[in-house]
Amino acid sequence: MATQRCPGKFAPRLFPISSQTCSARRSVRQAPPYAANGLAYWGAVLSLGLLASGGVAAEDSDDVQVLQPVTVNAKAGGVAPTEGSGSYTTRASNTASRLDMSLRETPQSVSVITRTQLQDFALTDINDVLAYSPGVTVEQVETDRTYFTARGFDITNFQLDGIGVPFVYGNLYGDIDTAIYDRIEVLRGANGLMTGTGTPSATVNFVRKRPTADTQASVGISYGSWDNRRVDADVSGALLDSERVRGRLVVSYQDKESYLDRYEQEKTIFYGVVEADLNDSTTLTLGHSRQDTLSNSPMWGALPLYRTDGSATNYDASVSTATDWAYWDGRIDSSFAELAHDFANGWRVKGVLTRQQVKADTKLFYVYGTPNPDTSGSDLYAYPSLYGFDNEQWIADVYATGPFTLGGREHEAVIGLNWSKSKVWDESKYGAGIGTEIDDIDDWDGNYPDPEYNAGVAGSEFTDKRRSLYAATRLKPMDRLTLITGFRVTDLESSGVTYGDSKKETQSGEVVPYAGVVADIHENHSVYVSYTKIFDPQFKDDIDHNRIAPVKGDNIEAGLKSGLFNERLNTTVAVFKTEQDNVAEVAGVYPGTSTNYYKGVDGVSSQGYELEIAGEVSPGWEVAGGFTYVSIEDKDGEDAKTYVPRRMLRLSSSYRVPSLERLKVGASLSWQDDIYREQGVATTGPNAGESIRTTQEDYMLVNLMAKYDFTDNWSATLNLDNITDEKYLNSLYWAQSYYGAPRSAKLTVNWTY
Fold first, then answer.
1. Do 292 and 334 contact (CB within 8 A), yes or no?
2. Phi-psi domain of 521 (left: phi exceeds 0; alpha: psi -120 through 50; beta: other)
3. Could you tell me if 752 and 232 are in contact, meaning their C-beta atoms sit under 8 angstroms apart?
4. What single DSSP character describes residue 79?
5. CA–CA separation, 343 vs 340, rounded Å?
6. Residue 183 is inside which H or E element, if any?
7. Rounded to the nearest 10 degrees, how much is the dihedral formed by the CA atoms of 242, 247, 248, 249?
8. Do the beta carbons of residue 212 and residue 218 sit within 8 Å?
9. How far is it, in rounded angstroms, from Cα 108 to Cα 352?
């Protein structure tokens, strides 16, 4: 029998299409192939060619375009910001180990979306940013809820300035605006050293803007398709003549409609930070950010993708299942305090205390069922729900880092303690009239009576605690060889309940080791290899209602990295392999319910390779992007996670026109090969009994930009997205999906001081 998903705690749950009711645990408010293949090929050739050459089109540093200087107050032990650099790369990162290392010295693949790239391509939220990052898939299953994958597995940990902030339910509610960030770093592969768990996907690190000593200010106003209006303001500088106290304030406001019927969104962003030098060696930083997002008529769930006879549905890109009364109101508050002290011997001690609170208040409408072409009705049914969510997280991190001498050589080490506590409350109130047949989606106008929410109540109240000790060292046994090794020891404790299931779980003394070797084979090129264990606790139950044990496995990566033209251009060729055991997989439904139970599956493997390039190819020409291939198989050698693209190309570039120095032009493209999802078995028509497969063919999105500097202070940027007006499904992560945005335009006018 074909199956259709029904809303659940983490994703819609499975139930037979003949059912007209569904007792979910909770709700949330929720180009031609030859061209694409050719671009993938030439992107790979370009990366390899640059790696093999020490002097492609770039010139000596004397000929490099001089950018306007930006003065930043930076203490020792920090990575320089990217704003004002004009570059699509950065010289250093500490996301992998909290040791400040160049990208070439880091024995894993690292992508950095710099402030310049964010501005050039108007990347204002995290979904846009990660869609530009090599190897990352944005699984936008609904308008206001998103999953992310890398190398075939879910990304479940974000960081704020290197401090881990894990997802509660493995996904992101709403979005994260980029106005307050200097850059976003994506470290692919397992990162148990800094995150406490070694999931083999990626770690996304949001690096916040910091105060500058010199006064600087900017204001940007933009207007785009579907009445998309936005204002950004950013001011920074010294608050005292001595420059010992500095501050920064960032505010943004956006109000937009959408290509989707009835969908609208309003966002307000505030960020304030003060940095004070208590003495010549000690700095105290206090900051707070807040993002309020109000969405009207958001989609909870999405469009049915097939009919009972197995044929595919095909709606207009604008079609939405949301009602006119649905809403999703969300808030993210994040406060932090940092105290750092630099010692005369080069060591630094830093403590960070972070409090983050995520809230959501929603009223949503879900559509379930499977259209039957042989009946006069729609065979689609209503599922309204109220949902509230409150997650408060406290995170403390104290660490020391600095140099030491051993064997007549200088090395570097870091040792730290991390503690976190996350309290979650959520509640679902189910609406009357669940199972009422609705109009056909093609004719749906969102007009459905707002019911009483008295059909049942369920929810969660639980606490997760985590304590970790971590340490790492970078050893230099010889000039051309670097050894990076470390470990993290973690205790986990959970208590409480979630929708009737116990969350009680304890893991003690789990050790996640890490080791990497980097060898310089040329002044511009290095080879590396790294290894780490995988340890990932799970909160899913088996048929006996027992918690499935954590995922365990191994992750290894090797490659060639190059830092060319005085580190202005970075390139990487990497291969990787992951083996995992006890990966949770749906095994069935508890009798008499719509609740899934799971089993642990051994032998899930992922392997592939990546090519990446980022930085200045020649004066005025910036490039960032990469090509990724991944193969994901189960223990029997069969394809797994077929909704993940096996091949992806991400490439963006901008060029300052020499004959017209005030003009910058650019383009970006994103290509992925075909993906598919097995949806069950057809129950009607000539194909009854045959399997149903939903397929999204390979596609390519092309965006263009042009920026003109009218004066040193005034500029305008025009962005054109999806210029070929490609129609595509956003994701096949779930059984339902909806279409991506068609062709659009946006004009931004900026004033800077």
1. no
2. alpha
3. no
4. P
5. 10
6. strand 181-188
7. -130
8. no
9. 26
Q: How far is CA 70 from CA 82, 83, 102, 211, 237, in A?
A: 10, 8, 21, 12, 11
The amino acid sitting at 440 is D
Start-to-end Cα distance in the chain: 65
Q: Which two tokens stand for residue 357?
A: 């609170």
Bridge partners, 5 (sequence order): 14
Q: Find the largest Cα–Cα distance for the chain.
A: 84
Q: What is the pLDDT of residue 197?
A: 58
Residue ranges in 94-200 assigned as alpha helix (H): 115-120, 126-132, 192-195
Tokens representing 74 are: 């930076």
- Specify which residues 433 forms β-bridges with: none
613-642 pLDDT, tens digit each: 999 999 999 999 999 999 999 888 889 889
Contact in structure between 548 and 598 (CB atoms under 8 Å): yes
Kindly report the pTM of this predicted structure: 0.86
Q: What is the dihedral of CA 560, 565, 569, 570, to 10 degrees?
A: 20
Contact 24, 38 (CB under 8 A): no
202-208 and 157-160 strand pairing: parallel
Q: Mention every residue, 6+ apart, whose C-beta is less than 8 A from residue 131.
A: 138, 650, 670
Task: Name residues of the chain where pLDDT drops below 50.
Answer: 1-77, 592-594
**For residue 712, what is the DSSP state?**
S
Contact present, 371 and 313 (Cβ < 8 Å) = yes
C-alpha to C-alpha distance for 661 and 602, rounded to whole angstroms: 58
Give CA separation, 641 vs 65, 248, 333, 732, in Å.
Answer: 46, 44, 34, 10
Distance (Å, rounded) from C-alpha 20 to C-alpha 14? 13
Q: What are the structure tokens assigned to 277, written together?
A: 């030098």
CA 47, 49, 52, 57 torsion-angle sign: negative
Q: How far apart are CA 100 and CA 54, in angstroms?
A: 25
